[in-house]
Each structure stands twice: as C-alpha cells, then as structure tokens.
Design goal:
single chain; alpha+beta; 5-stranded mixed β-sheet; two-stranded antiparallel sheet; 5 helices; elongated; binds adenosine-5'-triphosphate; binds magnesium ion
C-alpha cells in the first residue's frame, strides 16, 4: 500500500507539473492572442481614420469640382448672353461710325452730334454689361468689401432719381415720396446706389410710356426701406420663384434687352449689407420691389 501510495504521489506530482506547464503555455498563447487582438484593433482604428480622411478629401474634391462646373456654366452663359446682348450696341456703333466715315462732308452738326451720342450710349451700355459680369464674379468669389460711410438717405435718393430722369421713356415720371423720420444712415453708398439704380432701371424698362414710377425711401434709425413701384408689365407667377437667379429673365420680356444679371447682383449686394430684397408682382398690373437694409452697418456683418 505504501509503495502504491508513493507511486500515486509521484504520478500526482508529474501531473501537476504537466498541468502547470500546459497552463503556462496556454497563458502565453492567450497573451499572444490578446496582443494580436490589440494590434488588430489599432490597425482597424488607423484604417477608419484613413478612411475618414479619404472621405473628407473626396467631399472637398467633389465640392471644388461642383464649383468649377458652376463657374464653367457661368462663363458659358456669359459668353452666350454677351454675344447676344453685344450685337445690338455694336451694330449701332458700327453704323454710326460708317455714316460719319462715309458721309463726313454731308452730315450737319446736329446729325454728327446724334451719331456721336449714339456711339457713346452704346459704349456705355456695353460697359455696364461687362461691369455687371465683373461684379457678379467678384461677389461669387467673395471679393467685395463693404465701405460704410454716414450720409443723408433722402439726399442720396434724390440725387439718383435726378440722375435717372434722362433714362425715362416718353411720358414716364418719378413720384418720390420721402417718409418722415431720421435721415442719417451708415451704409455703403456705392453698393446702395447700384441696388437702387438696378431696380429703378428695371421699373423704367418694364413699364410702358406715360406710366408713373413711385419711389419711397424711409428710415426709422434702425432699418432703411427702399421701395420702387411700377405699373408696368409685371412678372408671370410661374417665373417669380426664379427671379433672382443668374441670367434669369421672365417669359414676358419679349424683345426688351437685358442679361438677367441685375437682380442677381442686387440680391447679393443687399445680403452683403446685412439686408434683404423681396417683391410683389401681378402680370399686366405692375411690380413693387422692397429692399430692407440696416441703417447702421456693422463691420462684424461682413
Ligand atoms: P439686366 O442685367 O440688364 O438688368 P434684366 O433686366 O433682364 O437685365 P434683371 O434686372 O436681373 O435682368 O431682371 C430679371 C428679370 O426680372 C427681367 O428680365 C424681367 O423679366 C423681370 N423683372 C425685373 N424687374 C421687373 C419689373 N419692374 N417689372 C417686370 N419685370 C421685371
Ligand atoms: Mg435689370
């Protein structure tokens, strides 16, 4: 019995040694697996990071591609609009120049002056189309800065209306209503002039002879309101949602010249000054444009 017991103890020791050895091996395998798992997790995290960066880059590339495409479209639209709109003033310049050239001796002073005026106004028209395009691309690139100054709103509007008297069609006239209240404002005069000039010249262009154009300017010290109302051809309801889009022209303009850039520029300018523009219109009855701007432009708005 003692001998058997001894043997059992020995076998037990061997077994325990074996178990210990196996446990050690198992622990090392488990540790290896844990290490491999840690490495895998780190690799997965790294891949996810790279994937995220790639997705971001892809989005950036897509955005700049879209922008390129939009710019390309803008250039194409400009080329087709310009080639169409340039034709009339260019042929008018050419015909006046030819008359002056071929019949220099025969034309009297009055006719001479008429042709020179025609050339000048056609050149001015061409320049204004080019300026519109330049202004729009500057605005799209965010390259327009605001230069606020203090001035009297009513004086400013009166000056513009005086300046525009020469553009009225026969029988058309301005009614300028000045609302009471404070008149000193802090705003960018040049940009405001461009805004008012555009909407008043539209009111003239899209109204018939003999019709009145009503302009009202008002400020309560906080906001400036510019309102231009005409009784002209109006804007068809189906075209109204697209009116401020680049190159958009309503379906009822027929052969009235224009590039469809004026209002797109005006809207961007109004927003640049921290304001907005809206309109009401009924086809065949007339249109009212209202521009609301802050009366004290804050530099933080840019
Ligand atoms: P331009 O670039 O020479 O100003 P345009 O007058 O055609 O050309 P916008 O001033 O942008 O371009 O006006 C866009 C369109 O909105 C016009 O083509 C016209 O259809 C419509 N519109 C604008 N103002 C009036 C208005 N007062 N009455 C009727 N339609 C108008
Ligand atoms: Mg216009």
């Amino acid at each position: 019995i003692l001998r058997l017991n001894d043997e059992l103890v020995k076998q037990n020791d061997t077994l325990e040694a074996k178990v210990e050895e196996r446990t050690e091996k198992l622990t090392s395998v488990v540790n290896d697996m844990l290490e491999a798992n840690r490495r895998l997790n780190a690799e997965i995290a790294e891949r996810q990071r790279v994937e995220r960066i790639l997705r971001e880059r892809e989005q950036e590339i897509q955005e700049s591609l879209n922008r390129e495409r939009e710019l390309g479209e803008l250039k194409t639209r400009f080329l087709s609009t310009a080639s169409h709109e340039f034709r009339t003033p260019l042929s008018s310049i050419l015909s006046s120049a030819e008359i002056l050239d071929l019949h220099a001796q025969k034309v009297d002073n009055q006719q001479f002056a008429k042709h020179v005026r025609r050339i000048k106004s056609s050149v001015e028209h061409l320049t204004s189309i080019l300026n519109d395009f330049l202004n729009l691309s500057k605005l799209e690139d965010g390259h327009v800065s605001v230069d606020p100054q203090i001035f009297c709103l009513h004086e400013f509007c009166n000056d513009i209306i005086d300046e525009m008297q020469g553009l009225l069609k026969p029988g058309q006239r301005f009614l300028h209503e000045e609302k009471n209240g404070q008149t000193e404002v802090l705003a960018d005069k040049k940009i405001m002039k461009n805004i008012l000039f555009n909407i008043v010249s539209n009111a003239i262009k899209y109204s018939h002879e003999g019709q009145t154009i009503e302009c009202s300017t008002r400020t309560d010290g906080k906001k400036i309101q510019l309102r231009v109302r005409d009784h002209g051809m109006g804007i068809p309801e189906k075209d109204q949602p697209y009116l401020f889009g680049n190159f958009f022209r309503a379906s009822n303009v027929e052969n009235i010249p224009g590039t469809g850039l004026g209002l797109a520029i005006v809207k961007r300018y109004a927003e640049l000054l921290g304001g907005n523009i809206h309109f009401q219109s009924k086809e065949g009855e007339g249109t009212t444009f209202t521009v609301i701007l802050p009366a004290h432009f804050e530099t933080s708005q840019t």
